Amino acid sequence: MSRFHRTPALALSFATFLTQLDVTAVVVAMPSIGADLGFGIAGFAWVMDAYSLAFTGLLLASGALADRYGRRRALLLGNVGFALASLACAFAWDGPSLWLARALQGAAAAFVITGSISLIAGLYADAGHRARAFAVTGIVSGVAMALGPTLGGAVASAFGWRWIFLANLPFCLLAGWMLPRLVAETRPDAGRPLDPTGILLLTLALSLAVEALLQGSSTTLTRPTTLLGSTVIGLLFVLQQRRRAQPILDPALLARPAMIASATLLVTLSVGYWSVLVYLPLFLQADFGFSVDMSGLVLLAATLPMLVLPPVGGRLVSHWGSRRPFTLALLIVAAGDLVLAGAATHVSSAIAFGLALTGMACIGIGAALAHSQLSGAVVALASPAQAGMASALTIVMRQGGFAVGIAALGATVESDRALAGFAQTFALAACVAAIGAIVAWSLLPKPVPQPAA
Q: Max CA-CA distance within the chain?
């Protein structure tokens, strides 16, 4: 067997690190950002969702463009775009200007991520080496998203929230210098066709769903009309994909119950853990009066498990199959969210803080046991010809669930960030995670007993 070359995988992991770090790095500084730019809970949600929605929509186009014009070129252009969008975020003067800049960040990040994934697939012909390279980038991405709140809090506390974005620039410059020297260009024999109609339909359906949820307790017809529009456009996307010879997301991919379960788990875990992570700093600052940097440190209770426990999740899946470990993981997340809801009912007390730490540790443990394994489960269920599409499906479901989850949970938080609102937020997240556990137990296959030797 040929020797595994780590350098390209590490270089590509470095390029993707910032794009994933910026998904969560701003959450601790959100109250400061809102106070400076003049927006509240709905604005907080759009700071996150503008990034996620643009990333999800452009992810499907960027892969085809990378195949057509060069994968390293797409990654480098995405890196330049990410640096410029970060600069725009740092100099935003109001909510809409920041949301637009965050959307540009997400669009650029899509080119960085798909370029990286495609380069790994092209550079590592051996299946074992390719799996090791993807494992390296997967670990780095999980570490980036998990450490984002703590690192973002430290930077915002020391220098101000704008430096969360300005700090990206030297690293983007380093990536732009390093990648052409360490990573060779690859291009497939035949590029995939673009599907601008499908991309537009999917992005619009998700955006309308987010907007409808953020309209809160509107008594007008606006909210149900927006939800109806999202549903209709989503159905049009499914029909349009069924009629295409080369769909960007083939609905037939979800024909098997196990695939439906895995896709559902991606969404429910995003809501039960990642979306909750967005609102935890607001809760910690409102309930306990923590500073920005202290909130980031306390959040380590929820994020540190993501650094150490994924290998344990892999061993559990190898030993038991996916049904029991995924069910257990979602139940732990649901229990943690319920404990957080209990913490929100004890105003500024030692009991509340103990409950908060326990709840954060639980959601971190549950998410760590399932997060990295779910992507592998989805790809394993697909045929070799659909492996790339299955990989894209995992990102779309995870990011789509993250975006809609932020909006749904944000709709339960009252405008004055009262603790009762946070209790409802965490309780809703617990219900979603519990649904994921039920789906995992009901639809994932039982492990096949091994015959006795």
A: 70
Residue range 281-303, pLDDT digits in tens = 889 888 888 888 898 889 999 98
Closest CA to 22 of 118, 134, 110, 116: 110
Q: What domains can you pick out in the chain, each with its CATH number?
A: 1-184 (1.20.1250.20), 196-215+222-247 (no CATH), 250-444 (1.20.1250.20)
What is the rounded distance in angstroms from the CA atom of residue 368 to the CA atom of residue 350?
A: 27
Query: For 40, what's the count of Cα atoms within 13 Å in the CB-facing half-sphere?
Result: 11
In angstroms, the CA 243 to CA 190 distance is 21
Give whichever of 33-42, 114-123, 331-340, 401-410 has the largest mean pLDDT.
331-340
pLDDT of residue 178: 86
DSSP codes joined into one string, 357-394:
HHHHHHHHHHHHHHHHHHHHHHHHHS-GGGHHHHHHHH
User: Rounded to the nearest 10 degrees, how much is the dihedral formed by the CA atoms of 357, 358, 363, 367?
Assistant: 100
Q: Which amino acid is at 182?
A: L
pTM given for the model: 0.85
Type of residue at 133: A
**CB-CB contact of 451 with 439 (8 Å):** no
The answer to whether 187 and 381 have CB atoms below 8 angstroms apart is no
Q: Are 43 and 185 in contact (CB under 8 A)?
A: no
